[in-house]
């Protein structure tokens, strides 16, 4: 696509200049300000149609954000990252572009590439990883896929929006080195490798400057050093000052109709506060975005309609991503048999002191896997054989750092990897997974979210799919008819009643003050939500009330619980009886939070099984917006079928589990735990779910726990159950994908994109709450696995970065190095086809002349006064501007030092590349993975540029961070 885009660059530039010349000042400034929630204004005089934006990242909401216009719901971004597959992310992007075109959307507000700095981050489900390379690689694949479909992306949130507490105002104090090596790195990778057409700047400040006004990071780094030529859009309501935003590089202020641009910007120009030429620069970028997306007449779009990717089956894509994302954390033999292939060493891979041998010889000579305590090293499982094609399967390369230099002095030879190379040969014990559907006669499915699946995170990532396959439904559909499937709630973690869904048929009726029908829309469930645009024929001025009406046929008789929520007047009628008639006021001062989570009221009704009843919830809203021009409406009808009391529910689950051959327990977080707008207080599963798992495992040794969360939770019972499968927020096809994996038609393909702590207290970074408005990133470049390896006093995590088991075994046969790449050969030694993620880590070798010195960790050092003719310091103590870049052609300077110069403290090892490989039983395959220049560099805070650290490094080919199979030494000169 880039070649085609480059060929059109001249045409686009000429069209942009023609259009710009035809605009007066007032029209120019209108183009920089949203006209409503999601769009920019059209200018028919120059052939410009309105640019339409929509939230992502797991689906395309469109302008309505309502069930009237359903969207495909893919698994959460953490799930996508768990595939470690940029090509799969690219194909997901193709689907999202297809959805965007169907909904008339030109710009997708995604992906989110902030890092998992702390496991307490409430919005981590919407981000990818704790590692900047993995984040950048998956994000680049996503951006390429969407833009190959002719739809723009806006990579967000630039930069430092790594937590939600006080996100609108917090000043994140980040020293230059971690800012460059960690938090800016994913954005840099995506700009360099995928060339996004948009960036979204965040609410927060970085080192004293609001990101929508951060001239240094936007104008000098993003545009100057990296060459970004796209459009910079504010997060919604993040633009605060007209002049500072324009000078800081902000092109578009959203949402409208009232922003700091538009009329205020025209006034600033006329008052001489900014030059019209500065406005012209921003308008050019908006017009270029329009040209690329086909919104500007007279010039071809970057992707012609005939060149968009082929049609993608949305449900099939959602199901495939989910299967490949599921991470099998634990899979033990059933019935208490001894573990035949247990680890025999708890040591990291080391180079032997003996003479060098080939990696192939080393692999043949050693058969133990080294994992730190709490990890599970072998991915091996004895399973029924499946058919496979008898040929060698090529690898798909991971997206790696920066492009390798043509002349890099790196040499290497594979060496012995000590006590940690490969798994022992399989023994006779059979793991609990995959389940043999022909051998089991009864299956207990336990957990509230097994029936009412939680498939996506809360907040702006929410979409409305036209169907959801719950785990219970998926397993029932996949198992033979003679397998008895029983269900028990066990322990419901939700504090709010779930939206009315099963057994309900509902639609929403929009009424004027006289009761006349304005519009009628179908409802997927009991949540009626509009944000941005009402249905056709409905406006703020003519809408008086909305009725959610239809019928409900109970499956169970007894006392049913109904819940209503909404800010305004509410009247609920069930079976002709008015159960509630009153008003509800908002709580708190945050209007977005009050809108998304209105106060809930509960009532009960006795209903008979199988007898249909009419249901109507009438809502008269207190207001119809979140500000001028922002149409918004939200109210809900919730329902719970008759339930036992909490103790009795757990007892019933234990009874059901004890009577079944296998028990599958689904545990989950809730929207009150993981959502946009707030951070987590702890990592515990809500409610009594831990107790539930412990009780079930005590009566059924074949207990499989499915963890339905978007980010880490504590699993205190993990050693008591046979298997633990992490499903993330698995998207609309959750249950179908779960059945595929549990029953073995597909392998769980995921690896952890973030370290999984055993307890919150063990995590190296747990501070997400600002002090006096500031949040110090005092840990410097040591987050996630980088921090865990730094301190021997930290307890080992429950599961390390990169961990994940499969249904077959892999033998790493050889590791070869070239000046700028490594080649790994491995063989599937198991009985069925499989998928492996080959992970490459780089570990510096200490030298007597290279003494680590601590990195700056408490924010940027003060900048001394500049001499009269020196380059002035950048505002607010951010990195000093060693040069001024204006054309996008000047990269940050790079210097080379030898090992005799003191180097700052570095992690014990870091990820430098990865690749996905697949092979049938007995087949071998190879992965060739670049070694990028950036892997050998650190950001030199004193010099203000990248510094290459010469010396000897160990290249490690690994199954996970702590399961390192082969090593080779390389010398960076």
Task: Please describe the topology of this protein.
Elements: H1 2-21, H2 25-31, E1 53-55, H3 77-82, H4 86-102, E2 107-109, H5 132-148, E3 152-153, E4 155-158, E5 171-173, H6 176-183, H7 185-194, E6 198-201, E7 205-206, E8 209-210, H8 215-225, E9 231-234, H9 242-247, H10 263-270, H11 276-292, H12 314-325, E10 327-331, H13 359-365, E11 396-397, E12 410-415, E13 442-446, H14 448-451, H15 471-478, E14 484-488, E15 504-511, E16 517-523, E17 527-531, E18 545-552, E19 558-566, E20 568-574, E21 577-584, H16 591-596, E22 600-607, E23 613-621, E24 632-640, H17 646-658, E25 662-668, H18 689-699, E26 703-708, E27 723-726, H19 734-742, E28 774-776, H20 784-790, E29 810-818, E30 821-828, E31 834-844, E32 894-897, E33 910-919, E34 924-930, E35 937-940, E36 945-949, E37 951-960, E38 963-972
Parallel strand pairs: 1-2, 2-3, 4-6, 5-7, 5-28, 6-9, 13-14, 13-25, 25-26, 26-27, 32-36
Antiparallel strand pairs: 7-8, 10-27, 11-33, 12-38, 15-16, 15-18, 17-24, 18-23, 19-22, 19-24, 20-21, 20-23, 29-30, 30-34, 31-33, 31-37, 35-36, 37-38
Helix pairs in contact: 1-11, 2-11, 4-5, 4-12, 5-7, 12-19, 15-19, 17-18
